[in-house]
Amino acid sequence: MRRPLIAGNWKMNLSRTQCVALARQIASGLSDSPAVDVAVFPPAVYLDAVITANTGLKVGAQNVNENADGAFTGEVSCSMLQDLHASAVILGHSERRNLMGETSEQVNRKILAALKAGLTPIVCVGELLEQRQAGQTDQVVLEQCRISLAGLSAEQMQQTVIAYEPVWAIGTGQVATPAQAEEVHASIRQWLAKSFSPTTAAQVRILYGGSVKADNAGELLSQENIDGALVGGASLKAESFLGIIHATKAEKVA
Ligand code: PEP
What we know:
This protein is an alpha/beta fold. It has one domain: TIM Barrel (Alpha-Beta Barrel), CATH 3.20.20.70. The protein has twelve helices and eight strands. The protein has helices at residues 16-28, 47-52, 78-83, 94-99, 104-116, 129-133, 137-148, 154-158, 178-195, 198-203, 214-221, 238-252, and strands at 5-9, 37-41, 58-61, 88-91, 120-125, 161-164, 206-209, 228-231. An eight-stranded parallel β-barrel has the order 1-2-3-4-5-6-7-8, surrounded by five helices. Helix 1 (16-28) packs parallel to helix 12 and helix 11 (214-221) runs parallel beside helix 12. It binds phosphoenolpyruvate.
């Protein structure tokens, strides 16, 4: 049984005070033993403040550099995240791939470095609108998986989370239909079974991301291969983020 995960990517938003307050509000809306993993990803400079607020939420970074240390101005290493007690890191988000030119090869190096440091990588893959329209969705997504996840052992793969985020659905309000999302999630899981093993495929959590809101989360999460959500805009308010968490509970937790 895969434990659902709802992750909030706060991107380059909020102040230090707002980050801590939001984490506290989210945590106070959860039951004492939530059946859903909840993680938040504040801007890097506020990680320490959110982690030391001790809310019980998992807290992670939105990116990391693949190098151990050295002359990489403005970058943050895995050991720095470890030092802060961050538990996860989002890698290969489409904004980094498309705005910063990050490649799947680079994402692969970051994943291996993160795993070595004991951080859970949340690896984003997804097609552009024109690639979907050209019928290339599976090809694009599975190629991103193949390169980004190269060289991982089955055990490392089981510690890794994949987020399918169609680029045309991110921040647009245009959510994938549950059937569109499930089709890609099922392809990714089949690819995992072939590339690693059926046991590994059955254990890896695959999140959907792209305009998830409290009112569409239930239907998306009712799909067999959708194990949670990576949420941008709707994670910036406790009420809407908690709405998604509660919809997950209703769908995935008996
Ligand atoms: C994201 O940026 O990962 C994302 C899914 O954003 P939104 O929920 O705003 O579409």
